[in-house]
Each structure stands twice: as C-alpha cells, then as structure tokens.
Design a protein that fits this description.
8-stranded mixed β-sheet; alpha/beta; single chain; Alpha-Beta Plaits; Aminopeptidase; 36% helix
Amino acid sequence: MGPTLSEVNDSPAVPSGALPAGLRAELIAFHRDFGLHPAAGRQDGEAAAKAVRARLEQDGLRPWALPGGAGTVCDIGATDPARPRLALHSDLPAVLLGAGLTLAALEREGTLPRPVRLILGPAGAAAPSGTGGALGAIEARVLDDVDRILAVHGDPSLDAGRVGLRQGPITAAVGSLVLKLDGAGGHSARPHLTTDLVMATAKMAIELPAVLARRMDPRSGVRVVWDRVEAGHACNVIPQHAELEGTVRFLDPVAWRDAPDLVHEVIDQVAGTYRAKCEIRYQRVVPPVVNEMASTELLREAMKRSRGAHAVEDSGQSLAYEDFAWYLEHVPGALARLGTRPALGPPRHGAHPGEPAGSEDPVVIGAELLTGAALLV
C-alpha cells in the first residue's frame, strides 16, 4: 500500500484537487509510455489498462478489467447505502490513474467525502456494432450504486490549461448507414437491359442529405457525411453490386430517434426509380452527451478552484460523438472538454494528448479536475 497524501506532499490535500509533485512526474512518465488514442488498437488499449491496474494494485486497491481487457474499473472507499458512489470516467489512462491515486490517499486518511468508482473507458467512441465501450461497461454493471458520473475528454481546439463546459447537449447524436444495391449488370452498350447502379448510388448520395435537410426541423442540425462509395471494377461494364456508407449526425436527440423511417422512405423511392434492390442497414449508434446542470457546475467549480475562472470556457455543441452519452441515459452527469492544444507549435488534430514536448500538462490538469470535483460532493 502506498503512502498517505500528507506523507508524499507534506500537507493534506486542499479542495482544489492539486496533485503531489511526485505524482505529477509519475503521470508524465506514464503518459509518455501509454498516452495513446483510445482507438489506436485493442492490443495497445489492453496494455495501457493492464498498466493502470498494476499501479492501482501497487497502491493497495483492487481494480478489475472490463470485458475485452481494454477497460478498467476500481472502487475507492467502502460501499455505503447512505452515500452512493460518484463515478469518474476517462479514456485517458494517466488522467484516471492520477485521480485514483490521489483519492485513494485521501481515503486512507479518512477525508474522502464519499466513495468513488473509477472507470477507464475501453474506447473513446462508440463502434457501429454497438459492442464494447460504454454499452459493454454498462452491461457489466459499472453503474451499480452510482448516482452521478463525471468525465473528461480531450479537445484539440482548446488550449492546454483550459476546459470547455456546456449545460445540455455538448456532442452530437450519430447514426451509421450502409446501403448495398444489387441489379442486373451488363455491357454499357446495352444500358436499357441493365440496372444503372452507379446512377442510383449517385442519386442516393445526393438526395438523402437534401431530403433530410428539407423535411426535418432545421434546428435538428442533421448532417449526412458519406465515407465510402464502391461501384464497378472495369470500363464498359455496368456493375451488379454497389455500396454506399456514411454517418448521419444530429444536434437533436428527437431527430436522431425519428430519422430511420425517413431514411428508409427516401432510399426505397430512389431504388425503385432505378429498379435496384437495396439492403439498408441503419443503426442509431449513440445519442448526444447531455450534461446535467448540477454536474456541469460541479466541474466548473472544481476547475475554478484548481486553475481559476479564466481556465473555463463556454463550449458549443460539437458534431463529434462520444459514447459516454450512454452512461447519461442511466445516471446524471457531465463531460468536460479538456484542452490539449499546445501553447507553441501547430495544433494537434487528434482528440487526445499526444507525444510532443509540452503535451503532458493536460494529463495533470485532467486528473486535478476529476479529483477536485470528487472533493466537492
């Protein structure tokens, strides 16, 4: 079991959630080894999660792995029916490790306000299959005995040292769409004997975004983005099969839930015009992250105490998506955008702290933010 917080810092923790200097250095080193994008690969994610578990065990805690091995859960403080757990979530290993070690020291000193559950997410974004990530964690009952959940997620559009907060929806809802078209192929010299799948695919790519934008409330912010189109392999040969794949994003959760019927209607009409057989696979991937007011203000106050009021920005709603949203379908909570843009040099385009010099500060700031929030409840 590791030393108490006062032993490593020579003074008790203050409400700002500041980390001991020694722990800051450890987190920076950990980040250099395991500061991965969560989607970098299952093997890398499992290695990072395993390292987090090993370090928490070294501190006397008893973490356990989520199904698949790329996520970790750890309880700090005994279960108490009178004090439900606060869950702290991140897909940045060093952030959650820093908060966990600091809060565990407070628990040993008897000054932790309430029991806490750490959740290291196995993925930063929901997979179209709907497996793993937050859904898998929820199925594994990580929200049992939890009445609030707080999270931080990297944002390269914000300067390091700042966080973005917003009450209400802060990310978009997203659906995934795969269209598979089949019809009679043949030689392009006899097009009247074939199904023109190339034209049908092109019309669907154009018509679906236009019709959704026209027939849905413009305040829903619907946006169709095509990511893959495949049709044909040779000149003078009309193909028998074509595919179209993309995402449909919404600012409004009601539109996200209502969209599938309209999507099917438009696609069926276009396919019928061209005598194409069409298989439609539309899935509601994830709803928007909707930050609850009290949880948002809890994060705001924690950041103000840690870095000052100037370190908090009002964030707009993004068309990006985050499967943390699924947790908020079950318990109230909020997600903070953690600034990762370095003060010097070009901005990074990934959504998580990277390796260049000076990129470690967000890791410490994220850990202090979650720690400080846990001390306020």
